[in-house]
Design goal:
Length: about 210
């Protein structure tokens, strides 16, 4: 039996397997891709505090850092949990009994644990999202040149909407617009009944597992 005849027989066998052999078709077919179960997001952005007292002491903008994990439950619904960190320096002035006003450097830190549901509607590689949640906030306000600190823990609320733009199956760019409220209910160096929330723009990367 010549080599040419053997090659012809092998070719016919492979063709027959592809056409009629279901076991062979299953081996050659691409495996089904399961939907992602978890998403991890790292992001930053800009916060514009909603209260003038905060803006006057710490500037009109703040830079937050976000870390978040989403658990995808199907049908565009997910639950998320994450952390937001904000640190900002500023300066206050206190009018004393003397003619010269006193200026004091300040440092403001807020660490927020956040959780809630998120909903999405997909249009090919673009996903429109909307979410809301609760935050538990650890706030520290330090006067850097005098031994005076203000520490408090407060609950807050936030709502947000945005877009995810796929860069492939696993990666996406995320954009969020968010409004948050963190009422302190007490007097601080910023003034009475200060609200530490505001409007925020968030930009980051999402990795799906």
């Amino acid at each position: 039996m010549g080599l040419r005849r053997i090659f012809r027989l092998l070719s016919l066998a492979v063709m027959a397997g592809l056409v009629g052999g279901s076991g062979t078709v299953r081996l050659l077919a691409a495996p089904e891709l399961r939907p992602p179960l978890v998403g991890v997001t790292l992001a930053s952005g800009v916060i514009v505090p909603s209260q003038e007292a905060v803006r006057s002491l710490y500037g009109r903008t703040q830079v937050p850092f976000h870390g978040q994990v989403n658990f995808f439950l199907g049908r565009g619904f997910s639950l998320f949990a994450g952390v937001r960190y904000v640190r900002q320096k500023g300066s206050t002035q206190v009018a004393g009994r003397t003619i010269v006003e006193e200026h004091h450097p300040l440092e403001f830190r807020m660490v927020s644990a956040r959780a809630g549901p998120e909903f999405s509607v997909s249009l090919r590689a673009v996903h429109f999202t909307m979410g809301m949640g609760l935050s538990h906030n650890w706030v520290q306000e330090r006067w850097l040149d005098v031994p005076l600190n203000n520490d408090l823990k407060k609950w807050g609320l936030f709502v947000r909407a945005g877009i995810d733009l796929d860069l492939g199956r696993q990666w996406a760019i995320i954009l969020r617009l968010e409004y948050s409220t963190v009422p302190t209910g007490r007097k601080t160096a910023l003034g009475p009944r200060v609200n530490l929330g505001g409007n925020e723009v968030i930009l980051g990367l999402l990795f799906r597992l």
